[in-house]
Amino acid sequence: MPLNWTLKKFDELTTAELYAILRLRNEVFVVEQNCPYQDADDRDQVSWHFCGWDGGTLVAYTRLIPPGLAYPEASIGRVVTSPAYRKTGAGRALMQHSIEKTFSLFETDAIQIGAQLYLKKFYESLGFVPIGEGYLEDGIPHIHMILKK
């Protein structure tokens, strides 16, 4: 399934694009995962936003975070695929492109993520390795993982 991929700084997003991002993040992280949390964390403004579009519909998204903000390394966060597009390869393509973009944007040699524990094998298949012990974030089991270039 070919998606149209876009990468933009926060200030380059249109209001319609920003709305689509927030809508998808809320659909999955708040409603589907039943996890009321503060999504607006003041990191969006300094991050890059990587989007996969099917026509005018946002179906996959990540936030690429510069080194020193979430972790000493660059980070990929708010990884989300629309429930309607799961099992299509969109999530794997999203992460493969996000990894490539993060390494080139920030000229870094490592990416750290805080992964939901149930996705550990998925991230390991992309080259990430667990670091440290698991932890709870907003009531959901997570684990820190790192990918080195």
Weakly predicted, low-confidence segments: none
Percent of residues in helices: 25-40%
Strand content: 35-45%
Instruction: Kindly state the number of beta strands.
Output: 7
Topology:
Elements: E1 4-9, H1 15-32, E2 48-54, E3 57-65, E4 74-81, H2 90-106, E5 110-116, H3 120-125, E6 129-137, E7 140-148
Parallel strand pairs: 4-5
Antiparallel strand pairs: 1-2, 2-3, 3-4, 5-7, 6-7
Folded structure, characterized:
With 149 residues, the chain is α+β, with helices and mostly antiparallel strands. The protein has one domain: Gcn5-related N-acetyltransferase (GNAT) (Aminopeptidase, 3-Layer(aba) Sandwich). 28% of the residues lie in helices and 37% in strands. It contains 3 helices and 7 strands, in the order βαβββαβαββ. It has a 7-stranded mixed sheet with strand order 1-2-3-4-5-7-6, sandwiched between helices. The chain starts with a strand and ends with a strand.
Question: Which key terms come to mind for this protein?
Answer:
single chain, 149 residues, alpha+beta, Aminopeptidase, seven-stranded mixed sheet, 3 helices, 28% helix
